[in-house]
Design goal:
Blueprint lengths: L1 H59 L4 E6 L3 E2 L8 E6 L3 E2 L5 E2 L4 E10 L4 H5 L11 E9 L2 E2 L3 E4 L15 E3 L5 E3 L3 H17 L4 H15 L1 H5 L10 H13 L3 H8 L6 E2 L4 E7 L3
Antiparallel strand pairs: 1-3, 1-13, 2-12, 3-6, 4-5, 6-7, 7-8, 9-13, 10-11
């Protein structure tokens, strides 16, 4: 019996020693798991936080905006999408990589869109450039001082182009960032409506009154008869304006004017100054 009890206590003691030796190993394994989890989780959280901060910073960062003086010609009648555009930087610019490029640096761009002139009647039926019978040009800046730009840098909407030729058509940038002729189509429409209304009020005599009033208005202000700004290329504009006004004052003359009045293509020359701005998708 004594031997039995001694064997029992020896086995019990060995079991206790064995279990006590396993406990530190289990605790070490759990510690290793917690360490691995911490090491794998921390960079992920840091990466998410970094990306969120970067997105927030980009959202509130001011848009890149600068002026460029053209050094090359852009002929709207001959230009093609992809044609290079060259210019000179007029302002110091900070690039997205926080590098500064001073005024005088070479600016390289390209033509991104071309829309040629059309008749006034066709413009009234065109949804893309409604009531604008003049051509349009889209431009994008690709690099400044040899530094490539990844974002969309286009002409700043609702700005004017400073022309070197003061007799050239006034150009500006529409809401889409495309360069086109600056004029008030609503003003021309209102003038035509006023003349038509006066002719109707005159009754049968309106057949005579309409052409006379239209001719006088066209001679005094050729832009009314042409339906667009008059440039130096429009020779004898006042005389032609008179005859165009007479035609427009005839019954149904607006159809004839709509078919004969045409816009102008957009052309820019060296020295013209364009304001460019970074475009961000909404």
């Amino acid at each position: 019996m004594y031997n039995f009890y001694m064997r029992f206590w020896n086995i019990t003691l060995l079991a206790c020693v064995w279990f006590s030796s396993l406990a530190p190993l289990a605790e070490g394994a759990n510690a290793d798991k917690r360490k691995i989890a911490a090491q794998s989780g921390a960079p992920l959280q840091a990466n998410v936080t970094h990306n969120s901060a970067a997105n927030a910073a980009e959202a509130v960062a001011p848009l890149m905006r600068f002026r460029v003086r053209l050094t090359s010609v852009i002929d709207g009648a001959l230009a093609k999408v992809g044609d290079p555009v060259h210019g000179e930087l007029l302002d110091t610019v900070m690039l997205p990589n926080n590098h500064y490029i001073g005024a005088g640096a070479h600016v390289l761009g390209e033509v991104t869109a071309i829309d040629l002139l059309k008749t006034s009647l066709r413009a009234d039926l065109t949804p893309k450039h409604w009531r604008n019978c003049n051509g349009t040009i889209g431009i994008k800046v690709k690099s400044i001082g040899g530094q490539d730009l990844s974002g969309d840098i286009i002409p700043a909407p609702k700005t004017r182009i400073i022309r070197t030729d003061k007799k050239a058509a006034p150009l500006g940038v529409d809401g889409k960032g495309e360069i086109t002729v600056v004029y008030s189509s609503a003003g021309y429409t209102a003038a035509n409506v006023a003349i038509s209304g006066g002719c109707l009020a005159a009754g049968p005599a309106g057949i005579i009154v309409g052409p006379i009033v239209g001719g006088v208005a066209g001679a005094a202000d050729p832009t009314f008869a042409y339906g667009r700004p008059v440039t130096g290329d429009d020779h004898h504009a006042h005389v032609k304006g008179f005859f165009k006004g007479v035609i427009g004052g005839l019954p149904g003359g607006f159809l004839i004017s709509g078919l004969t009045n045409r816009g102008i293509n957009i052309s820019l020359t060296p020295g013209d100054v364009i304001v460019f701005q970074e475009h961000r998708a909404e």
